[in-house]
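Re: weekly structure request thread

Next one in the queue (476 aa):
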Amino acid sequence: MDYDVAIIGCGVSGANIARRLSAYNIKTVILEKAADVSFGTSKANSGIVHGGFHHNKKYLKTRLEIQGNLMFDQLKRELDFPFRRCGIIVAALHEEEMKAVEHLYMQGVENGVIGIEICSRERILELEPKLNYDVTGGLYAPGGGIIEPYRFVFALVESAMKNGVQLLTNFKVSEAKRDESAGLWTVHAEDGREIKARYAINSAGLFADEVSKIFGGEEFSIKARKGEYFLMDRLTKARPGRVVFPVPTAVSKGMLVIPTVEGTALVGPTADAVDDKYDYSTTTERLEQILDSGKNMIPSLSRNDVITSFAGLRPFLEEDFYIEPSKKAPAFVQVAGIQSPGLTASPAIGEHVKNLLKDMGLELTEKPGWDPFIEHRARSRELDPFALDALIAKDAAWGNIVCRCENVSEAEIVQAVRLGHHTLDGVKYFTRAQMGRCQGGFCTYKIIKIIMRETGLSWDAITKHGRASRLLEAEL
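Done, posted below.
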């Protein structure tokens, strides 16, 4: 089938681009190499909507961060994903760090950050009483917030597909050829599938360098930076009310303590360069450093509250985002090196790429029937007893709690599977089942049985995240 636009990679950038293009009378397809969307960099994002003060506005990433931040309230109304403007704090633990805080404040003022303030010791402890009592002062940006990144991506893609965008998963691009006379790219997958498109967008995250090479675009090298995290139990007394940053270094924004939008807390991430783009391992040494750094800011952090550790990989290319039409490959747009604050900037990236395509000659006529809203879905943990009873009366599956740690019902698992999430991780990210204290120890086998029942897949076809992540090896 021929398309107007092919988007390669469906993390948070690709999903926002797809959703923005869905508002126009064009045919768009998403090509995702994984078994589900958001399975790359986006799945292990820290979930922060940044405040717009960490970088100078001379950078494209800063301008898109500021624009993107302001778009989240409307997106939440339309797409029903978890988001809260809890505010961001930068805590200075020594007097000399206040000079860096003053620099961040002035930068934020210059960037037009609303409500930013320098805080005295008394003020910052008022804003976050769990901070180290020896804190000297700090910065407060009330416009910062927290989000569940995978639910955001799922909602964007659901909206895009509702409005005509097609999604092809397990589509690992292996070859691309341009027929200039027809004005078409022919894009081949490893498994033999192919599509044709007038324009191609490279939003392949960690693998954007490889995709660029396949299309005959610019040669560059994406480096992976590993970020390791601790996830804390939702009952931890150390969960702050706001995102807590240390004073940043030249390499990273430092180890954070983050109250997740769903009630748990994250501590991290590290920022270590790694050669292997599939290296999601964690180390005792780095996790010890994470906990020590976090306890410097919030002393009540305890190892006893740790549920699990995990790592994510962030693409690093250069200091700024690389978003522009290729100078070597025709009708090919580079969206590469999208590191922090990529999540915050992503709605604005969608708008920016749409404008680039228009400037490149793509005719964009608005769809009269474009619907920005997706269906609101009930969650067992959010319902009062009367509302839950009413759902159970219509469907008994609402009364069968599959994941007791996160209070997720069978009905919610079924919803996820019927929307196309056929892996354990896909179900986890959509519903939060397996994310609680036991980390799936009691509910995994129940979820596998539901996936088998709903899809007809055999037990040996169920995977954690697709491809070579099969869970069950033999039948007893």
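The chain is about 30% helix and 20% strand. The longest helix spans residues 342-359.
Next request, please.
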